[in-house]
Structures are given as C-alpha cells and as structure tokens.
Design a protein that fits this description.
This protein has two helices and seven strands, in the order ααβββββββ. The chain is α+β, with helices and mostly antiparallel strands. It has a single domain, classed as Beta Barrel (OB fold (Dihydrolipoamide Acetyltransferase, E2P)).
C-alpha cells in the first residue's frame, strides 16, 4: 500500500504544482510551428468572441495578447466540460493548456480538467481565481 501511495505522489505531484507563465516558450512554439505542447501563458484579453458549439460541446472563445509581446493567441475553453471564466476585454489572465499552432498566433485549448484523465488538466486564472 505504501508503494502505491508513493507512486501516486510521484505521478500527481507535478500536476498539482503551480505552472509558471512562459510566454517565450509560446512564441518559440509559434515560430517553430509546434503543436500539442503544454503551455502556460500570461496576457491581456483583447477580444471576447461568441461561443462556438461543436461535437465536443460549447466553447468559450477569447483572444489574448501575450504579456511583453505582440503575439495573440486564441483561447478555446470547453465549458461543457469545464467552467466558464468571466473574462472581459483588458482583463489580465494566465492560461494553462495545450498549444496548437496556426498562422494567426495559435490557440490554447484543454483549459479545463479532463474527466477521462487521459490529458493534463488545464485552467484559466482570472483575478486570483482558477477556472478549470
């Protein structure tokens, strides 16, 4: 039983650790056309878009401009699985999820817990509150 607890601690420990924003990594991922990369980005909301519905559910969508730069990234948050973050233009946010490259700056999705647990859980932090 003790071995099981140690293995779980080793597996779950990193998932519980706070992720530090690394906008330079997101900018490199964009420059190198990388996708399916776990990222944590910090930025300001520049535009809140209408929700989008698809086979996997309803997605809250908004665009952030990375802090200290000019690159923008679309945040695609599945609110059928996770929680809606009450963002508005000019809000500062930190987003953790999976980056997918596109020629417009990329997008970050999986910004919610994964009920299957087949994927690292993500989140959106707004004014000190974490939405997952």
């Amino acid at each position: 039983m003790r071995r099981v607890a140690i293995v779980l601690l080793l597996l779950l420990g990193p998932a519980c650790a706070p992720a530090t924003p690394d906008n330079a990594a997101v900018e490199r991922d964009y420059a190198e056309h990388r996708s399916t990369v776990e990222v944590t980005a910090e930025g300001v909301v520049t535009n809140v878009l209408a929700d989008d519905s698809g086979p996997s559910g309803t997605h809250q969508r908004f665009i952030i401009r990375l802090a200290g730069g000019t690159q923008t990234v679309l945040v695609d948050n599945n609110v059928t699985i996770g929680h809606r973050a009450p963002v508005a233009a000019d809000d500062d946010v930190i987003v953790h999820g999976e980056y997918v490259w596109n020629d417009q700056g990329g997008l970050i999705h999986f910004t919610h817990h994964d009920p299957a647990p087949a994927h690292e859980g993500g989140w959106i932090e707004l004014r000190g509150v974490r939405y997952q």
